[in-house]
Amino acid sequence: MNSPKSHHIAISASLICCDLLNVERELRQMEEAGIDSLHIDLIDGHFSPSMPLGLDLVRQARRKTRLPFDAHLMVENNEFFVQEMLDIGAERIAFHYESAFHVDRLLCLIRERGVKAGLALMPTTPLSVLDYCVDRLDFVLLMLINPGFAGRKDETQVPYALRRVADCRRHLQGFGLDIPIEVDGRVDFDTIPGLIAAGATDLVVGTRSAFHPGGTLAENIHRMRQAAAAGFSKRPGPACG
């Protein structure tokens, strides 16, 4: 089981927050800015009321960039989309516990292909659902908002976001695990330090951070890394990220 690299916070930029009419240009800029991975939100219009990306766009993006693909499936037919993302060449795939009938089988399917497997949890899903599959997990993805439409200005993180992350870190440590915790939902310059201090290691970023209009992509990435470093310095005890 791979532990998250000490002092390194992974930044995964959300494809749905890019200029989708100029994806190739956006990919070049992300590569140059030092993004760690491209976050692929696949939404089927049933699990969540939007459908911003199609599989063909993701396939074309795969041919245009060497950035690792960090896939987040918000779908009902998990097996179909897992197989599609495996065939496209994603390096990480997380699916939702809430919509999966065969959690263990899906985790095995992903890992058998040499791809990192994660389980995504909605804001109020009990962490105890991880108990019987922790040995097959490479990371956990915590949603800090309810899935909906990217970029909404009126939606904030759930008020218990920091407690949620800290509880998840402690829960995993109870099993002797030090795997990454990815956080998704309204991750911005102000919330990053607290999320990192609570135990998050991987940030899904979009319109409120990476693509914030107040700076260039490179400037925003630098600002996020500074915020992450500030949060890391506030972690209690031995570093767990």
TrEMBL record:
Record InterPro entries: Aldolase_TIM (IPR013785), Ribul_P_3_epim-like (IPR000056), RibuloseP-bd_barrel (IPR011060)
PANTHER family linked: RIBULOSE-5-PHOSPHATE-3-EPIMERASE
Isomerase keyword on record: yes
Signal peptide, first to last residue: none
Source taxonomy: Bacteria, Pseudomonadati, Pseudomonadota, Gammaproteobacteria, Methylococcales
GO biological process, alphabetically ordered: carbohydrate metabolic process
Keywords: Isomerase, Metal-binding
Protein name according to UniProt: Ribulose-phosphate 3-epimerase
Molecular function terms, GO-annotated: metal ion binding; racemase and epimerase activity, acting on carbohydrates and derivatives
Domain of life from the UniProt record: Bacteria
